[in-house]
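FORM 7B: Structural annotation worksheet

SECTION A. Query
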Amino acid sequence: MKKEKINTFIKLLLNNDLFFHTALLIISAVISAQTYILNDFGIFEIFKNAYNKIIVGANPYDFFLYKNYIWDRYLYPPQFVFILYPIFTLPGFIGAFVYLYLSILLYYLSLSKLQLSKQNKNLIFIICLPEIITCMQNLQTNLLVVAGILFAFGYIKENKPIMAAFSISFSFIIKVYPALVGIFALSTKKKLHIIVYTLCIVIIISLVPLFKINWDRLVEVNQLWFKSLATDTSSNEISKSFSVMALLMKLSIMSSHFFILQLLALMLTLFPFVHIKQQLTLNYQLLLLSLLLVFIIIFNHAAESPTYVIAATGVSIWYITAQKNSVNTFLFILFLIFCVLSRTDLYPSGVRQFLYEYKSKVWPCTLIWLKILIELFQNKNIIQKTEFAVEK
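SECTION B. Predicted structure
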């Protein structure tokens, strides 16, 4: 009897939007307070430093020293810092809260675009919560990136080309690789509209810095950005990442020619999309989305621990929609142990350090990426016989 009551309570909780929206506010406030108390606004300092350097004519992609001991640098397109600069200049706690609440809210709302039940949407949020918190504690932009991807996926499915184009463009301005979600546009009759709208929006956003700098300076800064991306692929930089390539380096299996590995992985990831022009089942589309979300992180030479909220979202979508067999459950447990919980206090500090050094987040996500590929290749029920209902 007690078990039934507990199950009923959990179901009610998972279907309670007010509870989750309240949680978003509390999480944002607590992490903002933590950031303020520790005076840990490092990434805000990097953004403000980049903005000022763009304005005065210096190189915004040079390494920057903050807190007197940390060296880091700005790696985003120059347009990004101009768009969010008003938030970065807000005082302490307020700036952090606005930025973090906006990030987690957009992430949570974007889960609704998966056309899953409210309960499954909230389950995905709960599974990814440790990764969400890690991302927020580092003031990273990855929640905005994955939100843009999910919004784009949803709006493409809903045949809303302008909103889909805006979502793709928004993701692209933060990071380049999320633009891969645009491949889903091939599944709709309005693909040309999405392509044209996306190009127009990207061009408009690209010109935003002209409110503060001239055309020649804008061209120069974009060239510096492209150059910074090229230097970001050195073996030394790759070894610091949380990628398949870094893991292979750590295990002394591979030390060079990573581009070939990335190209091969890209080809394998895109191969199942050959069916994209057909009327695919929602499950098959979600498998494709999961595959893409995991791929863009584990084969990203610049992936960091906080970026795994993107891969974790992909894995969670996969497990929620996949068959519940022993292999899938085992892989999901590995994912929880070695990825989601790997940076928590559930492990002693020595174990956490070992897992960190040996890129523990990469292992289960790579296995699951391979498992999703196998499922896509084996899945025979890919064509949709009837229209699926979009959740209102």
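SECTION C. Observations
Strands lie at 64-66, 70-72. The mean pLDDT is 87.

SECTION D. Sign-off
Analyst initials: ____
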